[in-house]
Amino acid sequence: MRNDETENHSGMSGEERRKILVVGRGSAFSEEVMGYAIHLAARLDYDLLALCVLGVDRQDAESQGNRALKAVRVFRGKADREGVRCGHVLTSGQLGSAVEELNHRVKRIEFVVVDSGVDRDEVAQGVTIPMFSVISHSLDSKGDHDMASEHITQQKKPVGKTIGFGVLTASLYAAVFWNADAVMQTFTKGGWYAALPVATVFLVSFVHGSFAHNLWSLLGIEANQKPALRQTEQKVIQKKKTAQKRPRAYAYVNPFHRIDR
Amino acid sequence: MQDLTSQALQFITLDPLSILFLFVVGFIGGLVSGFIGSGGAFVLTPGMMSLGVPGAVAVASNMCHKFPKALVGTIKRFKYGQVDIKLGLVMAVSAGVGVQLGIQIQHMILEKWGQVGSDLYVSVSFVAILVVVGGYVFRDAVKSARSCGLDQVCALALKLQTINLPPMMHFKTANVRISMWFTIPVGLATGMLAATIAVGGFIGVPGMIYVIGASSLVSSATELLIAFVMGLGGTINWAMHGMVDIRLVLIILGGSLLGVQLGAIGTTYVKEHMIKVVMATIMLIVALSRALAIPKYLNQLGLTNIDPAMVSVLNKASFVVMCLALGIGAAIILASMWKARREVHQLAESYAEA
């Protein structure tokens, strides 16, 4: 069995952290399983361990290995951005025995998240461990990968809207500046005439605001989609971390229980 | 504000250069305020005055451009789930009271020490507050940059949150439960500062971060809501005196509505401590700029005797540094946004290859 293992990031000194083992389908991880696992790990304050088990086919081994490495790198990059530690294991052979061996070697794997299409019975051959399967929709009927990034890049560009709001904005500006003197005289009369400038800027903020919004998305500058939930989630994690710092009394049933670390 | 109507009104004629200036400053100011919740006003008001716009009209027009800009920014950032509406409204109401308090204090000082004394008071409080708060924010930004960009909740905020002084308020988006008695002073201070130096956000955002305990993302987004409410109130007041120059407002808005959206988009890419970095940088440079203007007032009060030529150089330098503050802030935002965007795209590409 070939093992290419990178242990979790540095800074792991001290207590061994709990982990979620994520099993990919062959040499790939679907967008869903990555998202789910990272999300869960962040919420629980666990680490991740990504496992790719390659087939035993010798001919294809190299390209498969490269693909798996790339997939793992993407996964780790994503986890890193969310502040979740992620390690990975690339191995070849039987899925069941790989999981079994890993479960013996790596401490504190709490449960397993598997991608859709992974045979759960095979994973759980030699271990007793809770397992969650993520139903992934980004796999087409043949089980092939549907490029997740296509959803992002192939959005329709709002050309018509940009032009429409652009024309509206321009005509609004023209209307004010064409007759600037008369407009200024009426708008600065004071009293109830105050409603005029206020109403005008509201209108401008809608029309020109929509134009600006569409213009930026036409230029491909759009928000990085992050679930809103993540904002509060970080705070929950933060609270949990501070709570953990409080001194606590521990009673160990077996005083030698943690001596092997 | 009573004697405003008596002031002779003259609305300037616009030439292409000043239109360009207002548009560009509007854009950069919008970019910064979309990102950190406020900004732009401190350059726009003196900028308009240097174009020959009377002070009151400059202030009124600045305020009239601020609230639609803040509205657009608020809506945009609300979609990203960053705005705490309840916190914003509570802060806005107390800030409204704070503005009235600030105006009263200004009047007292004006009566006692005259216009120069009032100017000196504004400058000194400007410098003092910005150096203290800006320095603190900067130190904190560096600290959270070291701890992998995650925001740490300030110890003071955590302490205040544990004090159970009814009525307690729960702010859902900010995920904070804190007594009303700690929320209102932050709003009051924001309003007082807004009345004094026209940029309440420099106290409001740090206040929400360090006293109330909201994240910098939520604080800066909520500040936009506060700016909208206060700006709308202020504009109605000014417009009733006929002080708003709608042409100036529209030109600035032309740039700032583009900028504010870009700034809001930027917050979804960068790490949270970048908001603090940008805010602190701008605050410290603006403080320097105001410090350069102090000798003029000291001279006028007869406290010092600095060469008038020197004073005029300092005065010009003060305005240049102010523009620099805005420019540097915008540059940091764009650079960090560019970097973060490239990372996201590289990730997507490498995934497509894999």
Number of domains of chain B: 1
Describe the sheet with the most strands of chain B. 2 strands, antiparallel
Q: Total number of helical segments of chain B?
A: 11
The geometry of chain A reads as elongated
Largest interface: A-B, 59 and 64 residues
The rounded Rg of chain A comes to 28 Å
**What is the helix content of chain A?**
40-55%
Structural class of chain A: alpha/beta
Q: How many strands appear in the DSSP assignment of chain A?
A: 6
Shape of chain B: globular
Radius of gyration of chain B: 20 Å
Low-confidence stretches of chain B: 1-8
Main beta-sheet strand count, sense and barrel state of chain A: 6 strands, mixed
Oligomer: heterodimer
N-to-C SSE string of chain B, H for helix and E for strand:
HHHHHEEHHHHHH
For the record, give the distance between the C-alpha atoms at the N and C termini of chain B, rounded to a whole number. Answer: 66 Å
Unreliable sequence segments of chain A = 1-13, 139-154
Task: Give me the count of strands of chain B.
Answer: 2
User: Treating each run of at least 4 consecutive H or I residues as one helix, how many helices of chain A?
Assistant: 9
Can you give the helix content of chain B as a percent range?
over 70%
